[in-house]
Design brief:
The complex is a heterotrimer. Chain B is an all-alpha fold. Chain B contains eleven helices and no strands. The chains are: A alpha+beta, B mainly alpha, C alpha+beta.
Chain lengths: ~375, ~325, ~200
Amino acid sequence: MSSLAQSQLRETFELNIGPQHPATHGVLRIKVVMDGEYIDRAEPILGYIHRMHEKMGENRTWNQFWPNMGRLDYLSAMAYNHCYAGLMERAAGIEVPERAEYIRVITAELNRIQSHLLGFGAYIMDLGGFTPLMYAMDEREQILDLLESVTGSRLTYCYFRFGGVYNDIDDDFITGTRAFLKRFRPQIPMYHKLVTGNAILMDRLIGVGPISADMCRKYGATGPVLRGSGVNYDIRRNEPYSVYPELDFDIPVYKECDSMARYMVRMDEMVQSCRIIENALNKLPEGPVMAEKVPKALKPPKGDYHYAVEAARGTFSMRTVSDGTNTSYRMRLRSPTYSNVSLFEEASRGMLLSDALAFLGSLDPVIPEMDR
Amino acid sequence: MNELIRLLSYMICLAAFLGLNLAYLGWVERKGAGHIQRRTGPKDVGPYGLLQPLADGLKLMSKQLIVPANADRPLYMCAPILTMVPAVLLFVAIPFGEHLVPREFSFGLLMMFAFASVGGMSILIGGWGSGNKYSLIAGARAVSQNVAYEIPMLITAITIVMITGSMDLNEIVRQQGGYIWNWNVFRLDKSILMPVSFLVFFICSLAETNRTPFDMGECEGELVAGYHTEYGGMGFGLFMMAEYANLVIGCSLTTVLFLGGWQSPIGIFPGPHWFLLKMYFLIWSFVWIRWTYPRTTFWGLLNLSWKYLIPFSLVNLLLTALFIKVF
Amino acid sequence: MSGYFKDIITGLKSLAVGLQITNKEFLTKPITLLYPHESVKMYPRYRGHIELIKDPETGMNRCICCGMCEKGCPSGSITVKSEKRPGVKGKVLTAYILNFTTCSLCGQCVENCKPEAIRFSNEYNLASTRREDYIFNLLEKLHPEGIPEPEVDPELLKKELEKEEAAKKAAAAKKEAAAKQEAVKKEPAKEGGESKAEEKS
């Protein structure tokens, strides 16, 4: 901090970053008290896109809550679908056919790559480089086409069902996915050459926005933010669900705690997701994709249920209290970005404005998921 | 009377040249950006989108000029004009060909730098006059950036003046005649650091024209649109056009000082075509750079200036002085 | 000091590599699909708004007007209107109104439909400036030339008429019986009343 900022004579002014601002990717508003170019205090203000998803869960039947799952994090909707399906299957004791679980993992990992691609592109665009976004969009489009051919939608998927998936994947999808992996793998080194190795970018990311593991724990930050702070925590390994224990992949962890570490975690996760998909495609069993005897009007027994998945931005968990009727008594959604962004206030103190926005981008927030 | 006709015809030709450049550099940039990003760029208005600048101009001109409530009205209105005037004025001194100079100054180079600073000033005025905090930050950034980059740029220009012994731009070009190794960029007999010096000048002109990676004044991801956040319609259009005018000026100056202006690299057929070729190549490299790199931060930019560019240009200055004295 | 020059060299090298990549991309062909001139390949599973299916045998819709789609819809976007027609088995669909402005394309209606009367269409080129344009009557969309009348089964009609007559007769008989019963009821009531009065007196 400059010596002027520490003196008594300092003069501050307020700046509203958002709710409409290119760096916030949506309607996040950050009220910043600025001291020249330095941030004195930054307070994220949420609620501009609050849609009461939790309340909706309480006055809709279990089946009717499905479309909401695609509209929380519109970039990794498949993981959210997965969480809801897992939650209700645990509650109602539904056995899922193995093929369905594999299809879930394949689509969810494709979705994760897609999300990280857009996250990568948008992040570099925040830093002023527009071209990588377009390259990422090109690859992302391939994934969206693949997912569209199976699920029928491009972004807000409503594909999973209690006890399985909406419809089976076909051979076109499998060959298409293999072709995509073959095409996508050489792209990542290209991104590293074009972006990661760039001296200007390194100057902007290395050492910017340090978050210690303790701060992550304090605010409950998860996902790439936590793994970029040297903590090896991934629901897929630590609290395994679905068929992840049978698949072969690594959890990328970086100890640098800065924006570059978080960025690199995402880039490496894409490679690992490719591995998971290839592995799952090889192991894909034959069989039905829907459990038999799933009641249309689901009435899970009374109780308190919890399920967590690793979404693209961190741990997404759902907790519901069922009173034995066809609606939920209480629906609780724990979304990762909410926790990740809440540490912004503490971590951004005394930062330069441009560094703070580079730091915010490295948290990769998706606002509709934060506000729910 | 003859002089008057000559000046008038030059003015008309310059205005036409400038207008065409300002309109079509936008097209070049968009088309270039498109192809670099696996897209096609403008395509539908006219063949290859060639009428796109016209459509853009029409759209900008038909828009209402809105002055924000807490803007400083006179400053707000005069900033776009003030940014355009020096940019246009500077074309007077540029030697397009041996006899194709609107006005031959003996202090052409000095005039260039004098008026170039006014451009930075107008950004500050626009940023201040808008009454917007983002614009104000952008204005302050642009000024300190201009100050930081004018120093290495001037030192490098002084090196050239020392080599050629003249501030007349046409004279500087004349001395680079003959073959490619007579261009200032390859004058290793005057100072072995001349190519580095060219690089320094090139980076400085990138920063002077406020282009990515040094577009701290505009800085879309942070400051919305920087100093022209509050400008719409032709106010914004003028800022855009001034940016391209500055681009042309910057590239022309680099061409004149380092790449031998209208001189031919192989010693035959010198003329304006060489000048234009070199200038457009430089402009294309500016576009190319813009669509490849992310933006630096404010500190990164000052670091670059004070830690790398200024020491190098100073060393080059000393070396040149030494070489001239010794050999 | 050597670190200083090393930084410069590696930095410049990384910048040059970036330029090389963008140059390569500049020289390759763009991948854009020029949308209004050519359109995207549609997947058969694409979820457009829902539509009624025309039964190839009868040329009519298959809807049995059970209202399961209406009940299953999370946003209440569907309204099914039906009526009973003489001589036609089951109910007849008179209007199937989809409010597409609230539809979230979740597919609950398609899944809930027992007779498989609805499916997702492939229409993606919807655009309008008026909200009313998105309130579709799917029945009219299915039969743009006019909704055909359902075929009347003469036997069924006859049966129904008979049934109706029988029902009428039964109703009349019931009425009569009821009247009689009432009369019968009243009498003992009167008697009872009288007897009560008698008791009191």
